[in-house]
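Quick look at the format.
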Amino acid sequence: MSTIVPATDLPAAEFTLADVTVESIEARVQSITASLDAARDTIAALAPKDRTVESTLLALHAALDAAAVDQVFATFPSMVHADADVRSASAAAKTTLKQAFDAAYADARVFAALEAVEAEVRNRNDTVLSRLYDQTMALHRANGLAIADPDQCADYTKTRGEIAHLEQKYTQTINEDTTTLDFNGDALRGCSDRYLSGLDRTGDGMYVVTTKAPDYLAVMQTCAVLATRKAMYTAYNARCKANLAVLADMVAARQKAANLAGYASHAHYRLSFNMAKSPDQLAFLDDLAVKLQPRREADMAQLQALKDADVDAPHGESVQPWDIAYYVAVLKKTRYAIDDDVIAQYFPLERVLNATLAIYATMFDLEFVAAENMPKWHADVRAYTVYRGSTKELVGHFYLDLHPRPGKYGHQCVVPLMPATLCPDGTRTLPIAANIGNMTKATPGRPALLRFSEARTFFHECGHVMHCLLTQSDHALHAWSWSVNPYPGGVEIDFLELPSQMLENWLYDAQVLAQMTSHVDTGAALPGAEQKTLAALRRVNGGYAYTRQLFMSLYDLAIHAPGFAEGDQDTIIAKLASTWADLQRSVNGTEMIDGTWPYAAWYHPPPGTMPGSYSYLYSEVASHDCFPEVMRRAGPQGSLDPAVSREYAEKILVPGATQSGDAMLRNYLGRELSDVPFLHHVLGDDE
């Protein structure tokens, strides 16, 4: 449940960006770097007789944990702050702090001290402690200590710093993009009056359409004017041209660093930390791409028939990329009697938000309290304090920052602001998360109505919030995190999406949809027939959708494969384009149009976890295997049986990274993972 109580009755979250300035960011970076350096020096100075688990391994992580808690005030403003100078300083801070954390895991003196306590670690028979030790040593080796030659090691460290700078530069260029297009009313024919009424207007009455997700999807799915859709598609995929050179340099630097560390490629290096372990384990992606071609061809044939019947479409013209979302919407209306704009009237944002929290509260024994006392960085932001429902124990806090604005991070994600850690004095740092979205916003006289895809995304992202809040860890390395932060931590990247992907299944349950929906005018829940149709629509156009996901995953692997980064910058830029075009054509059956470079405004390449785009499919294999287990174990309450959801939480969410993803899945399933349910979902008939 979600309630509002007086601010005086709520604990403070101890998180604020109110006093953040360029100067405060720079000072905090210096302080964090100095504290990490001091911890390394202290451990290095220990006499052999004084080297213990506490004085080495745990002392190192005490410093790392404190730095992980402190760094957010320097790095998070890059994603949300109103001041461009602050965002720029914050982006630079993330690069510097990434190097500082890497250095903390790359000190030969500390590594030697840690080697000396291995026997003591093993003798304690503590599996979590042993995992912490093994991961710490692996990070030291990955950060260059496995390189014997000193000059080569120095070159490796320098190159890693260059990579961090390029990654942040690439991401910040996307965040700062403000591409818009102006259209008159005729050019937006088909778009709803409700949508148009929320757009800004120019002095001469033109509608200003941004390339942020709510506007882009609305136009691509509902605008009947082909020329407008093409213009929108072209502008969207021609953003951030400056990132072409950045991406080329990033790919080259990653390849160089991987080779210096003894790996065949950056793909081999990164995957060694994941459940997949090596590119060889991802051969199923190529196989799946072949198997999906009949489904993709059938999907495109359906859309082609709709375009052929469209009197406004050029006679005999094949379906183009800017047509697909539009004719999928037409297909839903004509074959399934589903109109996305009509369905959106059942998903007012406030209803979806409150119902999502109520459902997760029931599932995981939580209570969410709207925290008016927590400072917020923007008027759009909402804050919540979270308690254990049955015991009223304080669990943590989270923020919702759901709407687009200039300079803000332009995608959807959850940022772990505070990791769950155990402090040396025995107190705990409670987790704090921020759900950063770019969803439809209410305007005066116009409530925010979410397309079902937006409601699903919100439910999914809140699943990450639950994972962050429920993780029980003593150290930042084992807390819920990912590469949005400069410190290493969290589950394997190809496990990260599993919990939220699995939780999406709840959204297709009739009980859940009844709670989630309330017609904006009548208050009625979504009728049962439409509920069933939404479930059926999960696989509509699945051949196209999955081959699109596949070609982008294969692209990510290809540009990080051995030999790709050979040549100068111009050569690599040309290969970035030709590789995307070839894979889009061969796997997805569509063409990359001239004058566009979609990979330059794609959020996935920059994170240090890449290549990781495959991880969505890899995680989905597990999610489709887990959900049938939930339903098999559930009682009469079905998916809302709290006993089964809490078992899932205890075995999949609570451990965080104290266990490997493989171990958690075996523990939950009671067997090895099977891909049969996933293949049935992906390759089965649409009916």
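Next, a different chain entirely:
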Amino acid sequence: MPSCEPSQAAASNSTGSPSVEDEQSAIRGELEKLFDWNPQVYRGKCSPSTRPPAFFDQHLDDQLILKKIVHLPTLAADIAGIVDKFLPSDRILPSLPTDFNKRDWWEKQSRDVAFDPVHLELQVISNFSDLQAKFAPVAAGLAFAECWDSKLFSWKNAKGTYGHAVPDGFFSIRPPVDELSAAKYSKTKESLTDITKYFQNIGVWEFKNLDAGAKVHLEGILVLSNTKGPFPWSKCQDQTNCAGHYDASGPVVRGAPVGFDSTDSFCQQPSDPAQEEKDPGASNGRHPNKRKRKDDSLFHSISLAHQVWAELVRHDATYCVLHSGNSEMIFKRNRKQCILYASNVIDPATYAGYGKLQIGIFLIIYLDARYRTCRLKKALTNGNLPKMWLKYSPIQPASDEDTSPQTRKRALTFVEKHELQENLRRCARRSTLAVVVVKAGSLFRPHTVGTFKRIALSDRETDENDSVSLDIEDEISGSGMVFNAKLHAKNIKLESPLIVKWARSDVTCSALALEFENFQLLKPIFDAIPIAYGLFALDTTMDKRNGQGMILVMQRHGISLDKRGTAITRDDRMKCIRCLHQLHTAGYIHGNLTGGNVLHGDFGIRFCGLRNLQQSTSSRAKVDECLKLAQVLNDLQREYIDSLQKADEAKKRLRNDFFEINGVFLGPMSLETITKLNSSDHLEESSGFEYARAVIRALASKIEVMHPDLLYVETPIETGSRWWGSLMSRFPDIPYHCFQVSQENELLG
């Protein structure tokens, strides 16, 4: 089905039957509840600083720098109003799936993420990813009228993205890539593919911590809209000491392709920049003319505006959201006049219709990108392109006279990139040979180590004609022959970073082969392990050197917990417990749980070091391993706290006791069991349950069901942890995880 135009009805018409009307009324009722959702207020102390203008900002092309900030009080209300245009009264909405996140889920999720103090910008990003970012599928449901769990719209964290003027988050459009989705969105695919061809990231988000992005600093941006003269853009003033200021052609000038401004009229731009209309839902209703502030206090606000504009230019985006947990601001870019329109400062916890605003942000960014893509396609045909597009874009208009490779060069679309990466991963799993080259490190001299031949398959078939190249980079500190690596073949680089485990002696080679065998054994039934691409040994027919041993090639998932250097949060513990329970449910125990064998990455927890994997059905063995996991995490927590205390001693600063309460996770266990332990009404009489519940109620200061099969209990520190042994002796098959926590210092997580 094609995307729905605002103010148009869906493709199907109402039948008028009571059942359809009732269902549609219920769907609209649930959506209205989502529209009125607000997140909780965050608490915590953070660093109030933000980075100054960077190299890209200071060397930006003079024709691209920000000229003026204009206060647009109606911007947020106009964006929220976009949602109403997608909900005409006669439109038939898709049915809500059983797993649709309703208002109750949002409320609980909001309470959970706001439970702990927020001290870092990364926590603000993580909380946004768990809450506001999940409105993207809802926006896609309104835009395409197919379903409410579409993956065509997505918000992604920019962690791991490198380059100039990189924001903290992106809104990306993903065209249908599989046959089922392509058939379902057949009329939409072409439009979405065109957007991704010209604009990889169509909307940007910049995040700050609670203090660096406090309301007073965002209001300072509005004060700048009332200053006389152009915006005080910071240019490079230290040409002598600026590394990279000059290249072979002279002074360095940075820039990016600049397309067209959208012709949409959804967000009205003021004819008079000093208009004083108010957005009734915003927390900031005063006009900048009425604010008086010292110029020194605006340096921080200038830096924020600098970052926003540079990121908009770098990605040729129109809209940017500046979010800091308890404050938010929306910006709209005017390319032709180099003007940045700024909304009022928004208080997420009190803004009326905040959920609706978040959905509207995704919709307006999509509509803007679609209209701009249409204009750009026409301009590429007739050659009437903006000057800055011709100067900086690799995609140029077609010419009958000029057929040089530079003219034919164009950026790959999302689908083409996706297919290339999938083909390269398939090649990595099936290739017979791997050519290993040392690029860094002190173990070998920087030269070709040799050609390794696959000795164990990670796929059902191999391709005798394919080979891949592995560039061995630095050794991971303290890991013992484990290296970072990159893979490439046929001039294409695999975007996913890799890990190479190298074994040189007969004993370590046997252990490495056993580990890969266990990886393959668990692969169909347990997904919380890294992807293994294959096991290779030196091909002695091509290389006569001895002692090079074997290599195991795996995808790099993240960093081990013992190398992370941060607190073990409650969320970390829950993820580890879930992961271990999944392994136990599959019928295995890990056998070697250490901080180095538990990896934490963007996609959760993964277990590695599987050479001691054992098949077991013993409940006692599984409970013992759960206790072992708790001990490992507690030891890591203790090491982290010791490092903080040593740092405090060096600074001659006293810190209060970190541990204030005991925390215990009971489970995972059956729903029947957890109901009996948590409720005063028992399904059946049982002295064991009565005793257990009595002990929990007597000693617990807090009881909470974290998930349907996991009970979380807090007790005063004076009770100690030995009483759990007496309690759980009546339930020997239920895992329990004891630890000490501190709400004040956020070690609970």
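Residues 619-650 form the longest helix (32 residues).

See the schema section for token definitions.
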